[in-house]
Amino acid sequence: MTDRQDRPLRADAARNRARLLAAATEVFTTRGTAVPTEEIARAAGVGVGTLFRHFPTKEALLQAVMVGRLEEVAARVAELAAGQDPADAFFGCFRLVVESSVGKGEFTRALAEAGVDAHAALHGPSEAIRGGLTALLESAQRAGAVRPGLAVPELIALLVAAGAAVERLGTDAEARDRVLTVITDGLRPR
Amino acid sequence: MTDRQDRPLRADAARNRARLLAAATEVFTTRGTAVPTEEIARAAGVGVGTLFRHFPTKEALLQAVMVGRLEEVAARVAELAAGQDPADAFFGCFRLVVESSVGKGEFTRALAEAGVDAHAALHGPSEAIRGGLTALLESAQRAGAVRPGLAVPELIALLVAAGAAVERLGTDAEARDRVLTVITDGLRPR
Amino acid sequence: MTDRQDRPLRADAARNRARLLAAATEVFTTRGTAVPTEEIARAAGVGVGTLFRHFPTKEALLQAVMVGRLEEVAARVAELAAGQDPADAFFGCFRLVVESSVGKGEFTRALAEAGVDAHAALHGPSEAIRGGLTALLESAQRAGAVRPGLAVPELIALLVAAGAAVERLGTDAEARDRVLTVITDGLRPR
Amino acid sequence: MTDRQDRPLRADAARNRARLLAAATEVFTTRGTAVPTEEIARAAGVGVGTLFRHFPTKEALLQAVMVGRLEEVAARVAELAAGQDPADAFFGCFRLVVESSVGKGEFTRALAEAGVDAHAALHGPSEAIRGGLTALLESAQRAGAVRPGLAVPELIALLVAAGAAVERLGTDAEARDRVLTVITDGLRPR
DNA sequence: CATGAATGAGTATTCATTCAT
DNA sequence: GATGAATGAATACTCATTCAT
Q: Which domains does chain D have, with CATH numbers?
């Protein structure tokens, strides 16, 4: 299911692919999507040709980047969901997802689309995240730690929101904390 | 700099400027900033040349659009600030600003920058909004309706956040309301 | 019917369009279709942007060139068809069309397609040529100057053929004449 | 140049070479010269690297294809030249060469160049064809079956011409026959 | 002043050819 | 020898901005 059907990929090819992905992630998230492909290739230390061999389209590269990020988040959500206390799990996860999207610019958009699945490629990871969040949310609600009536779409919207807010505040850790506290307190009953 | 450079502007010139602004607002907010200038000109019923006579740069046009929006918001904030009950004024304003940024896409970004003033041109209106918000926030805090310790930057971050969240939820008015409630409840003390 | 609906076209624009067409005709026919658009623009003394403003696609430019050539030929065919002696008209036309396609490379292909109408844009001129040739052929056949049983498609094939042959022989005028004589003699009865 | 550079070629290498030639012939004649080398390699079931080991250049591959075709034709011409009746031999050969170039596209161009020898590599087979045609033509002229005054270059031009014409007419066998008759009749004296 | 034609730097993508595996 | 990944020059086309009409 996770196993790549498409040939094991030669050692150097795999390394280039990884470099490309890393460079693209870095570049896209710090400087936006408008950066020329050539620059991404240079940042990865390969030629443009190589970039296009691995990702047939700039768009495809962008998607690959998003998938990577979403998978990371999904993994962490799953991990936390496995923890004991429902409340801790839920709020820990909330903060974690938000923090992990800081400085990610376009990424937030992708997370947002986890609720919509704009691109087919994002389907898998989105599904995983949605699943994980659903579990966390419901058990936290059952435990009385989160106000009832909220569903996953709203939760995702709030994650996006918090991400945007936190990103706004840049390096001021205290302000970020205050903002997160406002939102998480708002999630609690009453 | 002292010389009133900007002559009263001939009637038709003023009308073209207005049309351009309207068209640009419409186009930028619905289709993003990537739309070619030519298309904006066409939407306004003028030639590109005219567009560039009124706004020396695409960027300048974008800024003018943002300024317009910010001024609108500033006006409404001021209006509400004049109302009686501090709590009502504050929360009413919060919801109003958020709702007014729905479907505005790039606009939220500009509002966000009211806290930073990336572009000099936005300074005036930003200042106005910031002033209004400061007044509202402080009196609401004095009235015990909003938790202390929060300052304007965090408030703006939360406005941006709420805007993003609300935009995410699209037409589902109930979900939008639940999300706003989470945030406004979180703003209250305790 | 011939009248351009699309605005009279400003003087300089018209001149550039003409230059572009001339340059493209020259370049395409002497060096093939693979020549970069940029070079054509340079040859015409304009920027690439101008080229693409007038012809949205390289393909479109090529078509315009072909249309131009076909129209020329159509005009001459019509002219000759108006002459007196059917035999003279027919054979004169044959030689004329052949000679006019010498060194035209891709052009022959277009003429060939007058029988097929690959591109809609070529339809008009193709039709005109086909019409003219039909008239010439039929009256020459009625006059007993051309063997019966031949129809326009075969005639076009023979024109293409003769064009290819003549082009092959390059500058040797005598050889060209011998080849044309073989074909025109072959067209006569018996 | 004296040293037999080309070792006997290992069995599998020879097979790959043959496959490449076959695939290239097929691909070039049906889809033109613009097809990427990679696709040809794939069609031959080998990697690009192998293609370039056997043919240092795409151009070289194309030439090899043409040489192959020309050799075929040369062989058939020689065969026919050995037949009895000069007239039958000549006209049979004419039709044969023409028919053999149908649907060959670029091939005709190569045949055409047999009269010019643009590429050194084509020299050998071209020479063979030219030799055969010369013999056929001269004996047919001596037998009074072909008009005097025609030389091999014109004959080749006519072959090319007929090839082009016949190709134009596609599947309509009757039209093709009429066109060939026009040309062969034209070749006869008077 | 308005217009829209001209400009050309900028960008994604392809493809012949080389070279590490 | 065979493979296919890497390379980067080359190319069609776009779009902000300028300027002749």
A: 7-56 (1.10.10.60), 63-187 (1.10.357.10)
Answer whether B28's CB lies under 8 Å from B59's CB: no
Q: Is C101 helix (H, G, I), strand (E, B) or coil?
A: coil
- Choose the closest CB to A165 out of B160, B182, B190: B160
Task: Estimate the crossing angle of helix D106-113 against helix D152-169, to 10 degrees.
Answer: 170
Mapping DSSP to helix (H, G, I), strand (E, B) and coil, where does residue B148 land?
Answer: coil
User: Is the entire prediction scored with pTM above 0.90?
Assistant: no
Amino acid occupying residue C87: A
Q: Which residues contact D19 (CB under 8 A, 6 or more apart)?
A: D44, D45, D46
Question: Which 3 state secondary structure label does DSSP give C52?
Answer: helix
Interface of A with B in 84-123 (CB under 8 A): 108, 112, 115
For chain A, what is the mean pLDDT?
81
d(CA B97, CA A156) in angstroms, rounded, equals 21
Assign A112 a pLDDT band (cuts: 50, 70, 90): very low
pLDDT digits (tens, 9 = 90+) for C129-157: 888 888 889 999 999 999 999 998 899 88
Contacts of B72 (CB under 8 A, 6+ apart): B100
Contacts with B, A 3-42, CB within 8 Å: none
Burial B90-129 (b: 16+ CB within 10 A, else e): bbebbbebbebbeebeebbbbbbbbbeeebebbeebbebb
| Percent over 90 (pLDDT), chain B | 31
The terminus-to-terminus CA distance of chain B in angstroms comes to 52
Q: What's the pLDDT tens digit per position in D146-182?
A: 999 999 888 988 988 888 888 777 778 899 899 999 9
Q: C187, D182: Cβ pair inside 8 Å?
A: yes
- R_g over Cα of chain D: 19
Span D74-124, pLDDT tens digits: 888 788 777 778 998 899 888 888 877 655 555 555 444 444 445 555 566
Amino acid at residue number D109: R
In this predicted model, what pLDDT tens digit does every residue of B103-116 receive, in sequence order?
555 555 544 444 44
Q: What is the mean pLDDT of residues B82-86?
A: 79
d(CA C128, CA C149): 22
Of A156, A164, A187, the CB nearest to B161: A164
Please say whether the beta carbons of C114 and C160 come within 8 A. no
